[in-house]
Amino acid sequence: RLIELLLELCDSWQPAREALRPSGAPLFVLLSASPSEGRMLFAAAHFLHAYHNSYEPAGAPPLLASLLPAGLVSRLEAPEPRDFLDAFCSDNPSPNTLWGASLRTTLHEALLRAVAPFCAELVASRTGGGPRPEDRPYSIGTPPRVVYPEQ
Questions:
Q1: What is the DSSP secondary structure assignment for residue 151, as one 8-state letter?
Q2: What is the largest CA-CA distance in the chain?
Q3: pLDDT by residue (tens digit) across 28-72?
């Protein structure tokens, strides 16, 4: 439900859209996307579709293009998020989209490495080992390009 609320907020409020990338929200949504999650995966696909097509900051290199193979990015550019959802959940590669369980694992591990510093700083701030997040805004930054050995 949180992903659905975030999507609604971004649809109606420009400052929320501007804060998405620095906050790491697209990374956390993509990290939460698992073929076994049903409704949450559907909401994640809608959010990622909207982010890629409408919320990406002007002039910034496309974030999801550095994380996903080109075949999946092209599915994000389709008119409906269902195209991306179907490809993301598939373990049967098509001629246009090489994707499956091992590639999802590669993505998941890369995303965990990308958000680890943010999570560590957040834990430190809550246990007295660092500044509180509200005292110093944190920008998660752009994660390194994900390299898929199978491609």
A1: -
A2: 52
A3: 999 888 777 777 788 899 999 998 888 888 888 889 999 999 889
CB atoms within 10 A of CB 90: 15
Whether the Cβ atoms of residue 131 and residue 54 lie closer than 8 Å to each other:
no
Task: For tokens 């050995």, name the residue.
Answer: 149
3-state DSSP assignment of residue 22: helix
Among all chains, which residue has been given the structure tokens 């990374």? 27
Provide DSSP, 38-98. THHHHHHHHHHHHIIIIISPTTSPPHHHHHS-HHHHHHHTSSSHHHHHHHHH-SS--SS--
